[in-house]
TrEMBL record:
PANTHER family, A to Z: SGNH HYDROLASE-TYPE ESTERASE DOMAIN-CONTAINING PROTEIN, THIOESTERASE 1/PROTEASE 1/LYSOPHOSPHOLIPASE L1
Cross-referenced Gene3D superfamilies: SGNH hydrolase
Protein name stated in the entry: Lysophospholipase L1
Stretches assigned to the SGNH hydrolase-type esterase domain: 38-195
Pfam families per UniProt: Lipase_GDSL_2
GO molecular function, a single term: phosphatidylcholine lysophospholipase activity
InterPro entries associated with the record: Ester_Hydrolysis_Enzymes, SGNH_hydro, SGNH_hydro_sf
Origin species: Pedobacter nyackensis
Amino acid sequence: MLFIKLLILLIMGICLLNKLVGLCLICLCFISCSSRITVLNKGVAGNNSRDLLKRIEKDVLQEKPDLVVMMVGSNDMVNSGKLVAYPEFKENYERLLKKMTSSGVTVVVMSPPPVDTAYILKRHDRILYDEPLDHKLDSLNRLVGQIAKANGIHFIDLYTLFKSKGSPSRAPGSLTMNQANFGKEDGIHPTKRGYMLIAETLYRYLKKNKLLRKSKKIICFGDSITYGAFMEGAGTSTGDTYPSFLKNMITTGQQY
């Protein structure tokens, strides 16, 4: 009788050990797979769609990425020294998409967040714009969504997301830099929390659409928002940039 009890305990112990070993192997596999994913920050401050076309060969195509996340348009619409009309922007955008997709790259595009127009007009001449800046960014958001849909490209609407969070505003909790939360009348670049929101939204989208399974190299391509202006680690995939937060979430499987 004692022998049977000992045998049962031994079998139960072996089963438990097997389960633990299995869980460990699953964890190790996940960590190993995640650590093989490279995230590169290819954002350049001040870039518009023309600039991205000039450097896409070197910064994107020569890197042979599996996935590219592109966000551009803020400078095209609100930077008085970089303004691009809607027809040219559409042409530039579609050329960018064609260059990437024809190379076998999976592309996800994100519309830029909204801006604080009053802050922008303190440093840019109002007479240079033919329509209100909030109208321009709203039109850009819809245009990017339409281009993505027409070309079968993944689209994330950051413009509406930031608006739904009450940003931009002049409050300290705004996800866009302002005098209260950054000591600077910026009105265009996200705060650290804003960058975290971008990364988390992107990470959820990539997981939901199973875009991480075959992605070994991810390039984040864009302007100063991708670059991570004013953040620790700006221009890299470290610190407080959205590519950094994305890389950490992919590696750990945990969101912020």
